[in-house]
Amino acid sequence: MSAEPRYVPQGGAGVGVSNRTIQGRFLLRPSPELNEVIIGVLGRAQRRFGLRIFAFQFLSDHYHLLLWVDDAQQLAGFMEYFGGNLAREAGRASS
What we know:
By secondary structure, this protein is an alpha+beta fold. It is built from 2 helices and 3 strands, in the order E-H-E-E-H. It has helices spanning 32-49, 72-94, and strands spanning 13-20, 52-58, 62-69. A hairpin with a 3-residue loop joins strand 2 and strand 3 (62-69). The N and C termini lie far apart (27 Å).
């Protein structure tokens, strides 16, 4: 189930995004392998959607992103791509 796209004024805006793991589980525990996965997926998503990433912070059960986006569709596409690929790749890295 997707959420309504956020309002982004014409010309773009800085947005802060937070996302939790399912049931607050510690699925993002730091490790060299997971750090590489996160950076790789974040870089691919940034290149694909052309937005700017100012800052990010990943903790064991959630993460925060500070982004500059041009419009709400760019943000929605980025988050869908990033969230899905991060979950898939992190699952592979942990098994």
